[in-house]
Write a structure and sequence with these properties.
Irreversibly catalyzes the reduction of fumarate to succinate. The chain is α+β, with helices and mostly antiparallel strands. It is 29% helix and 23% strand. Bound molecules: flavin-adenine dinucleotide.
């Protein structure tokens, strides 16, 4: 038994469930206040889906934003717009959460950069943003991995931190109207742990046959970019938590189908930038959509074709890049080629229909003709003299479930709210387990941000709560 686990006094420690970015942010904040943290993680390895994040984390204004960053005051408006029509339900609650998210975003980046020494110096503009504000490092390590491994390393060095992996939290303990701890299974043993609880157990995108099938039966059987695991929101509804927006699920149009393991329901994301830098999509050798359309529209265009597999439900679409794109995105493409998800070939392999499609695309990219599908941005596409001998990079892609916008309702202080919008004492939630911030659509980069913002707020709140209990 660890030093922490043998401490019987309930109120000297807080419990964090889940070791993704939300859990690690909450734990870091608690420890900065001198509170011991017992973190429970069901997987063998910590990091959750957070460690896979590849585009970056939003923040505005920051010192890294190009141009005149102090004028980037539109993060709030962009987020409200992305939430969509559902903003009209529970408008005030949603606006308060979004204000907290966007107003704390600059501080979240400073915390990671200036206190945790994580490089976030590169800033890009993702779809739906009116300004570049998605931060990642200049090196090769993707942002999710660099943030998670840095926070985890510094926590592991701290004597107040105790992490138990391969331990599944099975219920939340409640006495009267107050949460008092959790029950969990570890190495075949059922154990109890007492203290205030921060839930950071992530979304349900990897729960294909369970929660996903329940809330979005139309997506049952879809592959996912998420770790395959059941959602844990029911542990919170069992103690009175309210759910919001469970039907809103983000499907990413481009995840790779690995030719060596085509039926694997867990897919590797084909980065958005491949299309953005000029890549095109083919079905039976023909283009079918302006590749610069939103994730939702590209996904809908693909799923209008008959699926080629039912388990998982997937489609047979080719992503094609030329050498101009390769020059710009070399490290990404080399990595995909190394993993066997893309290969270098000539257009001959794709057949005569694809050859004439790519010839037409190249004419549009060179500005000789308007693109019949309305694409007007071709970025790095350079191939103009297209023949069957022209070199291309090709991968097979399919849509995959990527992010779940719904979850338990929280207050701007991270408190889990019951059906009457009252905080459940002793219980907080942060990250993808919560619902109501992103509405119908999450802006790219805002999920890592919500983990940091609401994880840290929850840590502060649990500390205040412990102070009150002790008095
Ligand atoms: C491939 C990919 C790329 C992405 N890229 C980006 C990006 O660039 N920017 C961005 O903002 N977002 C991105 N996202 C989304 C983002 O990574 C996640 O939404 C976010 O990291 C979720 O963090 P979290 O801490 O809430 O949950 P997670 O990181 O998923 O962690 C939850 C943890 O809780 C554990 N857990 C669950 N239930 C229990 C239980 N009952 N008992 C014990 N442990 C439990 C899980 O095992 C898991 O380790 C991406 C997602 C994926 C899959």
């Amino acid at each position: 038994m660890s030093k922490l686990a043998t401490q019987s006094t309930a109120h000297r420690q807080a419990i964090v469930v889940g070791s993704g970015l939300a859990g690690l942010s909450a734990a870091s904040q608690l420890i900065s206040h001198g509170v011991a943290v017992h973190l429970l993680e069901r997987s063998v390895k910590p990091g959750g889906n957070s460690i896979k994040a590849s585009s970056g984390i939003n923040g505005a204004p920051t010192k890294y934003q190009p141009g005149t960053p102090l004028f980037d005051t539109r993060f709030y408006e962009d987020t409200i717009k992305s939430v969509g029509g559902v903003i009209s339900t529970a408008r005030k609650e949603r606006e308060d959460l979004i204000s907290t998210l966007t107003n704390s975003s600059s501080d979240a980046i400073s915390w990671l950069v200036d206190e945790k020494w994580i490089d976030l110096s590169v800033v890009v503009q993702l779809g739906g943003h009116s300004f570049p504000r998605t931060h990642r490092g200049a090196g090769k390590t993707p942002p999710g991995a660099s943030i998670v491994t840095t926070l985890l390393k510094s926590l592991k060095e701290h004597p107040l931190f105790y992490l138990e992996t391969s331990c599944l939290v099975t219920s939340v303990l409640k006495s009267g109207d107050e949460v008092t701890g959790v029950e969990y299974d570890c190495e075949g043993q059922t154990k109890l742990l007492h203290g205030p609880v921060i839930f950071a157990s992530g979304g349900f995108g990897g729960d294909a046959e369970g929660m996903l099938a329940q809330y979005r039966p139309d997506l049952a059987g879809f592959p996912s970019t998420n770790d395959p695991r059941p959602g844990s929101q029911n542990l919170l509804t069992d103690v009175g938590a309210q759910l919001r927006d469970m039907e809103f699920v983000q499907v990413h149009p481009t995840s790779f189908v690995d030719p060596k393991d085509a039926r694997n329901p867990v897919k590797f994301l084909a980065a958005e930038l491949l299309r953005g830098e000029g890549g095109l999509l083919l079905h039976d050798g023909k283009r079918f959509i302006n590749e610069m359309e939103t994730r939702k529209n590209v996904t809908e265009a693909i799923t209008r074709f008959p699926a080629t597999d039912s388990s998982p439900r997937q489609w047979d679409i080719q992503l094609v890049l030329d050498e101009g794109i390769y020059e710009k995105a070399t490290s990404h493409i080399d990595f995909y080629v190394w993993k066997g998800l893309m290969h270098k070939t000539t257009i001959e392999e794709l057949g005569p229909t694809a050859l004439s499609t790519i010839q037409e695309y190249a004419k549009a990219a060179a500005g000789h003709v308007p693109d019949p599908l309305g694409r007007n941005y071709f970025a790095q596409w350079k191939l103009s003299d297209v023949s069957s001998e022209s070199v291309v990079y090709v991968g097979k892609i399919t849509p995959a479930v990527h992010f779940t916008m719904g979850g338990v309702v929280i207050s701007p202080r991270g408190e889990v709210l019951d059906a009457n919008n009252r905080p459940i004492k002793g219980l907080w939630a942060a990250g993808e387990v919560s619902g109501g911030i992103h509405g119908e659509n999450r802006l790219g980069g805002s999920s890592l941000l919500e983990c940091v913002v609401f994880g840290r707020i929850s840590g502060d709140q649990a500390f205040d709560y412990l102070k009150e209990v002790k008095q």
